[in-house]
Amino acid sequence: MTIAPGSSAETGPAGGLPREAADRAAWASILADVAVVTVTPFSGDLQSVDHAGLERNLERLIHGGVKVLVAGGNTGEFAALSQEETVEVVRTHARVARGRARVIAGVGYRLDQAVELGRASIEAGADGLMVHHPIHPYASEAGLVTYYAALADALPGVPLILYVRGPQLTADGVRHLAAIESIVGVKVGQPDPERFAGFVGAAPDLAWVCGVAEAWAVPFWRAGAIGFTSGIANLAPERSLAVLAALKAGDLAKAEALVDRLRPIEALRAGRGDANNVAVIKAAMDRVGLVGGGLRPPLSTLEPGDQAELIRILDELELPS
Question: Given 187, 248, 254, 282, which residue is catalytic?
Fold first, then answer.
């Protein structure tokens, strides 16, 4: 893959929102929101990305009030995309979102690949990068800190949001990460509010985001989260934004009640050992007239019983099916 030079400019693509570089105060404001991890619709044979369908989905999200879009997240099947496809997905997000929403691009894998993809994604119009947790069975805390520091050194001025999913990091490690100026926030993808609170206390200057969606938004909010990521918002952004509004208003009881209505679909996503996670969202999007589409292996479509349960849940949520 040929990489275009990275950009350290403080303005986004022509006509876009200003790019804050690695300004932590600015990014704390940006990430105090619902960050929608968008799906990647594929062509019928799964051989290419359906960019027209992606544009349609993105317009729906932006018209629904979404201000933060994550391209190339796990819900977007990042692991099934080539680097070239990922950059093109980012480019489509940036083109559609221009002047209306922020775009955070997923990067990951081997360090040189993450650097290469990061440069290309910023050049394609991303405002910042979400760094997937490195896939390695023997990753250590010291190794993770070295990985993130090297990525920051290679991409000076580019805002980095870390996606933490493994058990390696401690509060001490988080303090080391907070010393890396390019790191502006952390998405924690494990349902452990107590551990999350310890991280927030160790590095309060970073923007801390609940990475386990609406179901954990309230306890993470109590632990210091300023926002949360969502897959359900691909389907019904207004529901997710209502949860955030209740949290910001301090009405945690209302937030819990709103989350309770969404728990059945989250429970279905957790089915079959989490294998349903993306399949539920894509199938639901297809049912309500958006563009979900098929899934690339090793993901698979819903079993018939789960499909029937999804239709029942959509009816209960009063979403068209």
Answer: 187
Catalytic residue flag (residue 163): yes
Retrieve residue 101's tokens: 């929403």
Contact call for residues 117 and 85 (beta carbons, < 8 A): no
The predicted-structure confidence for 292-321, as pLDDT tens digits, reads as follows: 999 999 999 999 999 999 999 999 998 865
Where would I find the beta strands (DSSP E) of 189-269? Answer: 207-210, 227-230
Q: 109 catalytic, yes or no?
A: no
pLDDT surpassing 50 at residue 258: yes
Q: Which of 304, 315, 241 is nearest to 276 (CA)?
A: 304
Question: Of 58, 141, 138, 53, which Cα lies nearest the Cα of 98?
Answer: 58
Long-range contacts of 80-86, Cβ-Cβ distance < 8 Å, separation of 24 or more: 80/296, 80/297, 80/299, 81/40, 81/49, 83/1, 83/113, 83/116, 83/117, 83/120, 84/1, 85/48, 85/49, 86/117, 86/121
Question: CA-CA-CA-CA torsion for 277, 280, 285, 286, nearest 10 degrees?
Answer: 130
Q: Are 99 and 62 in contact (CB under 8 A)?
A: no
pLDDT of residue 135: 87
Query: Please, which residues have CB within 8 angstroms of residue 249's CB and are 6 or more apart in sequence?
Result: none
- How many angstroms separate the CA atoms of 190 and 220, rounded? 11
Query: Helices 83-97 and 111-123 sit at what angle, rounded to 10 degrees?
Result: 30
Distance CA 284, CA 252 (A): 28
Q: How many CA atoms lie within 13 A of 157 on its CB side?
A: 11
163, 248, 254, 282: which one is catalytic? 163
Rounded to an integer, what distance in angstroms lies between the CA atom of residue 244 and that of residue 320? 23
CB-CB contact of 211 with 253 (8 Å)? no
Residue 229: phi and psi, rounded to 5, are -95, 160
SS3 content of the chain, % helix, strand, coil (to 5): 45, 15, 40
CB contact at 8 A, 81 and 48: no
Q: What is the pLDDT of residues 2-16, one digit of tens each?
A: 433 333 334 444 344
